[in-house]
Each structure stands twice: as C-alpha cells, then as structure tokens.
Amino acid sequence: MKKSVKAALLSALVYPGMGHFFLKKYAVCAIFSCTFSVPLYFIISGIITKAEHVVEQIKNGEIPLDIAAISESLSRSIVGVDVQELNIKMYVLVVIWLIAIIDSYRLGHAKT
User: Fold this and answer.
1) Most buried among 10, 43, 48, 91, using CB within 10 Å?
2) pTM for the full model?
C-alpha cells in the first residue's frame, strides 16, 4: 500500500493527524490533533453537563424513571441556540478531519 493511502486512512479512521505522525511530520500531527480535540472536548463536556442535569432531576424526583420521560427531558433541554452551537462545532470537526485526511494524502504523495 502506498504511503499516501496509508497516511490518509490513518487520519480518516484513527484520529486526525495520525497520518502525519506516520509520515514523521510531528508538528503538523500535533496541530491537527489539538485543533480537532478542542471542539471535541467542548461537545463532550456539553453533553455530559446536560446528562448530569437530567440525572439530578431523576434523583430529585422531578423526572420519573421512565425512558420516554427521560428522552423527552433531554430533547427539551437541547433547543434553539444550543442546537446551532452544536451544529457549528460538528461542522468544525468534520472540516478539520477532512483537511487532515487530504493533507496527509498530499504529503504522503509528495514523499513518494
């Protein structure tokens, strides 16, 4: 398998920047990994915060221990600006990931 394809697959399937790591481009690997990790952190922390809020409501008896009630409470907690903000963060993740894939393929192709 060509280095360019292997690098692109590593960036696509493992984590953005891993193709650059394979190509020994450590600085670029760190840049892509960090820029991908920051929005990912904010997405995960937001989800965990909302989940903790629902758990507290269940503990306090505000929400019955029922799948439908829990699902409804979660869907009500994610409205308006939160959805837009989450969509923007997801688009940023996808764009960073695609750029990492394309760049690792380009660098791998240039090395051969």
Assistant:
1) 10
2) 0.80
